[in-house]
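**Tokenised fold:**
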Amino acid sequence: MKIGYDCDGVITIGIVPRKDGIIITGRSYEEEIETKAYLNSLGITNEIHFNPIPFSSKTRKSSGQWKAAKIKELGITRFIEDDEIQITEILAINPDIEIVHVISNLTEKENVRRDEHGIEIQLK
């Protein structure tokens, strides 16, 4: 079984991926440096895939569509996700995947950029 993990709302609330788990985040490639620093500070060094869309252009729906394609490409059979919109997009392309839906209000679901400590960055 190949397990995939979302970052925000999953790993950021304390769910630790298995060593062989793959992180597929809706975070933009522009957020790679601070995201990897944050994960490294938690001792998480798993393979991670970033959304190829610029930060200012991504949406919850487009992030879900990108995750869905990446999940299919990598052969993920179980995915842990907190965003209902993204779950819908993932299931549209991967109807047989097992989704673990994390229900929490601990993380903002809209387009928020965070530093290497997981703290929201105020963009100008």
